Amino acid sequence: MSFQPVKFYQTGTYTVGNRLLAPDARSVQAGELRSNSINSGHRACQGCGEALGARYAIDAAMAESNNQLIAVNATGCLEVFSTPYPESSWQVPWIHSLFGNAPAVATGVAAAMKVKGKNNVRVVAQGGDGGTTDIGFGCLSGMFERNDDVLYICYDNEAYMNTGVQRSSATPPTARTATTMPVGPEPGNVFGQGKNVPEIAMAHGIPYVATATVADLRDLEYKVRKAMKMHGARYIQIFVPCPLGWGSASHDTIRLARLAKETGMFPVFEAEHGEVTGVLKIRNKQPIEDYLKPQKRFAHLFGKHAHPEMVAHLQAIADRNIRKYGLLDEEKAHG
Amino acid sequence: MANKPFAITLKPGTSLANLTGSWRSSRPVYLNRLPPCNNACPAGENIQGWLFHAESGDYEQAWRVLVRDNPLPSVMGRVCYHPCETSCNRGQLDEAVGINSVERFLGDEAIKRGWKFDAPAASTGKKVLVVGAGPSGLSAAYHLARMGHQVEIQEAGPLAGGMMRFGIPKYRLPRDVLDAEVQRILDLGVTLKLNTKVENIEQSMQLGAFDAAFLAVGAHIGKRAMIPAGDASHIVDAVSVLRSMEGEDKPMLGRKVVVYGGGNTAIDVARTVKRMGGEPLIVYRRTRDRAPAHDFEIEEALQEGVMIKWLSTIKQAEAGEITVERMELDDKGFPQPTGEFEKLEADSVVLALGQDVDLSLLQGVPGLDVKDGVVQVTPDMMTGFPGIFAGGDMVPSERTVTVGVGHGKKAARNIDAWLRGITYVPEPKHEIATFDKLNPWYYSDADKTVRPMLDIIRRQTSFDEVQGGLDETNALFEARRCLSCGNCFECDNCYGVCPDNAVIKLGPGKGFEFNYDYCKGCGICEAECPCGSIKMVPEDI
Ligand SMILES: Cc1cc2nc3c(=O)[nH]c(=O)nc-3n(C[C@H](O)[C@H](O)[C@H](O)COP(=O)(O)OP(=O)(O)OC[C@H]3O[C@@H](n4cnc5c(N)ncnc54)[C@H](O)[C@@H]3O)c2cc1C
Ligand SMILES: Cc1ncc(C[n+]2csc(CCOP(=O)(O)OP(=O)(O)O)c2C)c(N)n1
Ligand code: SF4
Ligand code: SF4
Ligand SMILES: [Mg+2]
Fold first, then answer.
1. pLDDT at residue A332, as a whole number
2. pLDDT tens-digit map of B384-412
3. Best interface-test mutation with A: which of B24, B524, B526 has the largest number of A CBs within 10 A?
4. Are B346 and B274 contained in the same domain?
5. Cβ of A11 and B526 within 8 Å?
6. pLDDT tens digits for B278-312?
7. How confident is the model at residue A11 (pLDDT cuts 50, 70, 90)?
8. Is residue A175 helix, strand or coil?
């Protein structure tokens, strides 16, 4: 079963902490002693979802591994904004090699630890959606197929942000990027399958696959901790809005992640050995417009030369996700 | 350089060297906003403040914060019309927080556990006369005593409480509750002189060498209506009926009792008649939605079997019967006669048409301004005569217990300042924490706890209290439904959601601080603060 929010009283476990919750029921992020894996002074944009998501995830992995953790990083914003030579924000042992080889490097690090008898040292690899779903995809699939003892975390901001917002195979249909301009009869990114890496990961039958967003911290921490309790190849894709690439307000980062989940656009679920074992239900279903409108990358769908048919198509995609993963409670689905 | 490994020329450093706070064009600041409940409370209670303590189960501290403003929580928890709940932000989410029921729980808990008020401040040597021991007078006496003044209450009646005792029936306010809360005020050292009617305020002040006076004599003279009546007809006024319920001789009204009026007093009389075995019929000239009585009171009366004849006026009263005329509302909503008459059985008619103030004690006092039968006061509750203040039902007001208590508090603060030769300047009000300032996503779904009601047979035949209270578990639950509007409740959200670690957690009870060296001003903390306790303000650039 997926993460069960404590549904009680004032805020339950929706907030980061809660003075009324027993300390062990609070999140890692609520703790004064969290490891702050990415420290202040990093050069991510104002309101960067990736910086936030990475701290959430790596702090949780640190907590679960007793701080015995090595992080491998693919090229991308996360690497560039955190580590301009010779400075680094990372407060964990951290290594960067290339854009496309993070899974392979992580496999190597895990093997090295094994050889050295350091079985308590755990390995996390991380990269952007471009690094994961496109250029690093071969290495990733190999890592899955060999069931190497690595947790791979993909920070999905739906494009190649670091080089100026180019389309990736995780870019949603209709979105404007530097390479999918809003021109012609079907402006923005094309409708098509893209690449659903969580499902492809599941198809490898690996022990654990999950999705999460920066809007549901408790769920995210639960999944990272659960993954860290397991061995073998594990994959978590975290939805991290990018104010710069999406043309959204810096203060809307969490709101947009929440809307992506609440509209059904980004299904939040977990799977073990290829089978879905839990989904994070939608609390208040929202129409897709609520998610699209605050983002300039979808601006061409509205206004003077609106494309209601494309909005309807996106809505259909969200609805299909809802059906497919059972994202609505029975009563809400019919009510 | 030569000793360094290949391609490494600089020592590794930390990003802390990079003060990203310089990117900022606006900065977040913590602030307290005024919760709408506090803003709506006529007694000026810090509701969010006392709920905060109740939420952690510290009921005594909650009660202490509550009684800083209102000494009568058990009474309030029964008779207050709780405008706080009407304006509670949670009402826009599911249902308002049951503030009134938690207040009653705290008040009852205080009585059960024998909690006493904090000791008064050092004596000021000043003497204040309070006229009338109703809620307004008691509240003023309480606040003045806590400020260190010597207070004497002179009360015309045989017992303290005013309309809380001689108006509001027992089934809504049991007298042991009232007695306990009055006694606690007297325990502060307040002198109460019963059966002492002040006939002339100036004389009484001189006699007792009082430095100031607070008048709260209420409004006790039942208004009459011109009803042509035969000699044998039995017409009485509501306030006298309710007052005599407190004495030995219960009122003799007969079986068929017609109550004339549509306010809360009419409802209380009718429900009282029902409990005495009579058959009450309320006659009111307008419609239910235009009646001044609260709808829930009308509903409770109907449940108990009180009959109501809407859109009717009494034209004539004779022995054993009355004649009513059917009315129609005109397009302005005023009732107009139709010329259609009807005769109804009536052993007696009780007039519940409102009350006037008996101002005889003020005769000869220079400078007083009386308008529409009530004494005019300045915003600091002083009458036209320096040193004489007034509040409650005798001044322009909504005429509720809570307004009376609020007047008492406000007057006490101004009397205190006046006695010290200064002016009382209230603290500036914070901006209101309106619903749009909140992020309601974070509040989990939790329905309001409903207070138990006495079963209907006992409601119709006894004066037992109708509405029950909460117990400890559901009072805690109810308190925790509070959204803490505008005031940090340490949910750690800001600390968690900052992508730049620019929020410093200071530890339990101490809140948070921003680290402006690294805060980039993205505004996520403000957007994700559930309770609206953070505000972005532009930087001077
Ligand atoms: C039937 C009824 C039901 C009500 N129900 C509610 C309710 O549920 N909730 C609510 O909020 N409000 C209710 N009210 C209104 C509320 O009771 C009054 O607004 C409130 O009691 C006014 O307080 P007060 O202190 O101004 O005056 P009062 O409560 O009227 O007290 C005045 C006191 O002054 C004394 N006094 C008068 N003249 C003199 C004198 N010359 N010398 C010495 N003492 C004197 C009186 O004996 C009395 O004790 C109700 C009123 C009535 C009549
Ligand atoms: C082999 C190779 N090709 C291209 C690049 C240039 N490059 C650096 S980061 C990046 C985009 C990264 O996108 P993504 O992985 O989605 O991460 P994001 O920046 O969006 O977080 C690219 C194309 C590179 N470093 N190496
Ligand atoms: S471009 Fe996007 S992902 Fe990169 S630092 Fe800025 S907000 Fe973060
Ligand atoms: S939620 Fe709490 S603070 Fe807000 S209005 Fe209601 S009682 Fe007051
Ligand atoms: Mg990307």
1. 53
2. 999 999 999 999 999 999 999 999 999 99
3. B524
4. yes
5. no
6. 999 999 999 999 999 999 999 999 999 999 999 99
7. low
8. coil
| Span from the CA of A257 to the centroid of ligand 5 (angstroms) | 15
Peptide bond into A86 cis (omega under 30): yes
In testing the pocket of ligand 3, which one of A46, A162, A177, A214 has its CB within 8 Å of the most ligand atoms? A162
Question: pLDDT digits over B512-528, tens only?
Answer: 999 999 999 999 999 99
- Average model confidence (pLDDT) for chain B? 94
| B26: containing domain | 1-32+488-541
pTM of the model: 0.91
Residue that finishes a domain, picked among B300, B326, B355: B355
ipTM of the complex: 0.95
From B538's Cα to the closest Cα of chain A, the distance in A is: 15
Confidence at residue A6, expressed as pLDDT on a 0 to 100 scale: 43
Provide φ and ψ at A140, rounded to 5°: -65, -50
Q: Which residue is closest to B491 within chain A, CA to CA?
A: A18
Q: Is B147 inside a domain boundary?
A: yes
Are residues B403 and B521 both part of a single domain?
A: no
Type of residue at B529: C
Q: Which residue of A has its CA nearest to B16?
A: A41
Give me the mean pLDDT over the A176-189 stretch. Answer: 96
Q: Is B175 a domain residue? A: yes
Domain A23-334 falls in which CATH fold?
Rossmann fold (3.40.50)
Whether residue B414 is found in the same domain as residue B266: no
Give the start-to-end residue ranges of the domains of chain A.
23-334
Ligand nearest to the CA of A73: 2
A8/B530 CB distance under 8 A: no
Chain A CB within 8 Å of residue B356 CB? no
Note whether B404 and B219 are within 8 A (CB): no
Q: Does residue B439 form part of some domain? A: no
CATH number at residue B76: 1.10.1060.10
| Conformational region of residue B525, where left means phi above 0, alpha means psi within -120 to 50, and beta covers everything else | alpha
**What is the pLDDT at residue B153?**
98
User: What is the C-alpha separation between B414 and B411, in angstroms, rounded?
Assistant: 5
CATH code of the domain in which B142 resides:
3.50.50.60
Q: Which helix (H) or strand (E) holds B112?
A: helix B99-113
For the residues of B226-276, what is the DSSP string, one character each? ---B-TT--EEEHHHHHHHHTSSS-----SEEEEE--SHHHHHHHHHHHHT
Q: What is the pLDDT of residues A217-257, one digit of tens each?
A: 999 999 999 999 999 999 999 999 999 999 999 999 999 99
For residue A302, the 8-state DSSP code is: S
